[in-house]
């Protein structure tokens, strides 16, 4: 059986200045309503995906029995110029590129697999605290690659297999079909995310981690 890639560092150029990343320092303290207003003023649109409402309401149960609401991502899809930059500087098989910012005040983006992409290349531009972990899990009695579009609310159903603390301004490719959560993100995080339908063949993996 081939091993499943969990994540890997990628050697790719830093984001160019013309990407016009908003100054999100103030965003880190906003509540849901304020963040919705500010992102809209900056031309962001909430994704119209059907899971969005469900995800934003998702109630998590941790292994110790305590509960909390999940955070979720505000997303801005970037235009063709940004896609072209990613194709020319990362891989021709780039599908889309987006800005993402999670709702502050909630400590976990609960366990899930992504809905619209199999692999996500992430670059943490700004974070409210530096101990934010991406955690990979295996559902008991299921394969590591779990498939796209799932959310799991009960941590006790999961077995942690790996975690990575993504350094700022570093490209890290994540296998989005393996169940993963992001922990300790109550202070907010702004990322640039690049989507792929398959593992890009022409990308050089640096220190890849397999399960
Ligand atoms: Fe994800």
Structure write-up:
- By secondary structure, the chain is mainly beta.
- The chain has a single domain (5-210), classed as Jelly Rolls, CATH 2.60.120.10.
- 13% of the residues lie in helices and 36% in strands.
- It is built from 3 helices and 13 strands.
- The strands form 3 sheets. It has a 7-stranded antiparallel sheet. A 4-stranded antiparallel sheet has the order 6-11-8-9, with no helix packed on it.
- The model has no long low-confidence stretch (mean pLDDT 92).
- Bound molecules: fe (ii) ion.
- Fe (ii) ion binds next to loops.
Brief write-up:
The chain has 211 residues and is mostly beta strands. It is built from 3 helices and 13 strands; from the N terminus they run βααβββαβββββββββ.
Which descriptors would you attach to this protein?
globular; Jelly Rolls; binds fe (ii) ion; single chain; four-stranded antiparallel sheet; 13 strands
Per DSSP, the total helix count is 3
CATH architecture level-2 label: Sandwich
Compute the separation of the termini in Å. 11 Å
Provide the succession of SSEs.
EHHEEEHEEEEEEEEE
Low-confidence stretches: none
Give the strand order of the largest sheet, numbering strands 1, 2, ... along the chain. 4-5-12-7-10-1-13
Compute the average pLDDT: 92
The total of beta strands comes to 13
Q: In percent terms, what proportion of residues is strand?
A: 35-45%
Please bin the fraction of helical residues.
10-25%
Number of domains: 1
CATH topology grouping:
Jelly Rolls
Molecular shape: globular
CATH top level is Mainly Beta
CATH-assigned homologous superfamily: Jelly Rolls
Strand-pairing-aware structural class: mainly beta
* Main sheet: strands, sense, barrel: 7 strands, antiparallel
